[in-house]
Amino acid sequence: MQVSRNDSMLPEGIFLHRDKETVWPASANVLAIKDSDGVSLVDVGCGHEETYLRLKDFLSSHGFEIDDVHTVVLTHAHPDHMGAMRFLLEEANPRIFLHPVEMPLAADPSRLNHTFGMDIPFRYGMAEIPRERADIIEYFRGLCPMASAEATHRLLPGEELRLGGYCFQIVETPGHANGLVSLFEKRTGMLFSADAVGEVVAWYAPDSGGLIGFLEGLERLAVLPAGFLVPSHGGVSVRPAEEIARTRAYLLRREEKIVRELAAEPLPFPDLVKRIFKNQLIHLFPGPQIIQCHLDKLEAEGRVRCHGPEGGFLVELLERG
User: Which residues of the chain have pLDDT under 50?
Assistant: First the structure.
């Protein structure tokens, strides 16, 4: 990703608070947008107290106190984007914007177990721990704590959101989260891609929009006349079209790898996961969830057949070169 290290391309009155890391459990970037009433934030970062204190220091460096925050826009209900709400809501009372399908997840984060597809490794007999221990909120607790928050306003795809002196188009980009949104400001050409495009390609799960939703979201971004891209993880890119294409190519290369593995012989689902993902640490999450997304797409295209339990969860390629 070609980046502007000093973020000098940001429009006047918009400031970027970047985490020094980009790989999980890195906190998401935060946009601060100044106006005559104070400041709006796009995402707020992880729920560690030190992360929140860094956010407050960042705001202070631009002349704001935390109670100047009158609006928070959450791109989706994941802990690296909204975990710090637990602290912010103790000191401020902002409007909170969120996609409608993300609202119940923010209000009750335990529901993320479903959208993260935590049942999938158990369905295929892959998990070596009791089901009750596979709690995504407990997993987050030590890495990037989550918080709950009641959204007050809806982010509706296709509509526009005014923040400061800017007007952002709300673009639905699912896959990583079913209600993930990117924000595009036409006048300045600024595209805030959230987790749809960044230095690291985000994981995806069937109930978070799947691979099909991910690719459709990238197509929506690709047709925008963006001049530069601001991701949730990483720096400002001066080549948004290339970054979007790179993300799409990465996803399709993974699909090609799956097809190559199946071309030799049909494989049980657990074996396919282990061949694609060598790291055992992701055999519970997100390896099985990602593979399920690809198989859903390939099966819908008539390219693979996925046998049920009686068939040993066998995955068979129907097209052989």
Answer: 1-6, 321
Q: Which strands make up the sheet holding 95-98, listed edge to edge?
A: 14-17, 30-35, 38-42, 69-73, 95-98, 153-154
CATH code of 276's domain: 1.10.10
DSSP structure string for 185-226: ETTTTEEEEETSSSSSPPP--GGGBHHHHHHHHHHHHHTS--
Which residue type occupies 298? L
31: part of which helix (H) or strand (E)? strand 30-35
Q: pLDDT value at position 320? A: 57
- Give residue 309's domain range: 264-317
CATH number of the CATH domain containing 59? 3.60.15.10
**For helices 269-276 and 240-264, angle between their N-to-C axes, nearest 10 degrees:** 130
Determine contact, residues 91/65, Cβ cutoff 8 Å. Answer: no
Q: Quote the CA–CA distance of 176 and 199 in Å, as a whole number.
A: 15
Q: Give the number of residues written for the chain.
A: 321
Q: What pLDDT score was predicted for residue 7? A: 65
User: What is the residue type of 115?
Assistant: T
Residue 259 in domain: no
Q: Which residue do the tokens 């657990």 mark?
A: 270
Per-residue pLDDT at 292: 98
155, 27, 24: which is closest to 102 by C-alpha?
155
DSSP string, 89-108: HHH---EEEE-GGGHHHHH-
The per-residue pLDDT for range 177-190, each reduced to its tens digit, is: 999 999 999 999 99
